[in-house]
């Protein structure tokens, strides 16, 4: 009886502190990851603020408003791309058990917020010209792609000058 009791006590004394440490460590990692991700997901939407400010000014040309709306849609497209990348990485981390499900709920809430932003942009585009709401994000996607290509070319030029 004594020979079985000692290994069991040893295992209990070994497993309990390790599991306690693991739980504390994961919760601290989880809190720090929430802080990092929430900062990157919820940056201020400067283009939306600019568009709303221009919309409230009475003497703003329609062309300026359309350009501001397109820039707003371009920023939304970039946010969609970033959200997709973040979600893939987050699902991988959740499957490995490195972060909790609460983080997935946060990204889903951010997706819903982005969807409402997209609906708002489409309805604003339709106020300028009926049917423009369907095409504005195609144009915005092309512009965002060009911005990405331009940034890569500028980075290549900068690296070439440094070398």
Automatic annotation (TrEMBL):
<feature type="transmembrane region" description="Helical">
    <location>
        <begin position="6"/>
        <end position="25"/>
    </location>
</feature>
<protein>
    <recommendedName>
        <fullName>Translocation protein sec66</fullName>
    </recommendedName>
</protein>
<keyword id="KW-1133">Transmembrane helix</keyword>
<keyword id="KW-0812">Transmembrane</keyword>
<dbReference type="InterPro" id="IPR018624">
    <property type="entry name" value="Sec66"/>
</dbReference>
<keyword id="KW-0472">Membrane</keyword>
<dbReference type="GO" id="GO:0031204">
    <property type="term" value="P:post-translational protein targeting to membrane, translocation"/>
</dbReference>
<dbReference type="Pfam" id="PF09802">
    <property type="entry name" value="Sec66"/>
</dbReference>
<dbReference type="GO" id="GO:0031207">
    <property type="term" value="C:Sec62/Sec63 complex"/>
</dbReference>
């Amino acid at each position: 009886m004594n020979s079985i009791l000692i290994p069991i006590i040893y295992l209990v004394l070994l497993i309990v502190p390790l599991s306690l440490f693991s739980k504390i460590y994961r919760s601290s990692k989880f809190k720090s990851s929430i802080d990092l991700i929430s900062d990157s997901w919820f940056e201020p939407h400067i283009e939306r603020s600019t568009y709303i400010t221009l919309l409230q000014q009475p003497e703003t040309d329609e062309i300026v408003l359309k350009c501001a709306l397109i820039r707003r849609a371009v920023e939304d497209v970039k946010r969609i791309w970033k959200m997709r990348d973040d979600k893939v990485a987050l699902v991988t981390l959740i499957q490995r058990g490195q972060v909790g499900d609460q983080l997935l709920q946060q990204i889903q809430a951010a997706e819903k917020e982005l969807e409402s932003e997209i609906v708002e942009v489409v309805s604003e585009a339709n106020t300028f010209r009926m049917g423009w709401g369907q095409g504005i994000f195609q144009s915005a996607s092309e512009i965002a792609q060009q911005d990405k290509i331009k940034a890569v070319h500028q980075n290549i030029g900068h690296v070439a000058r440094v070398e």
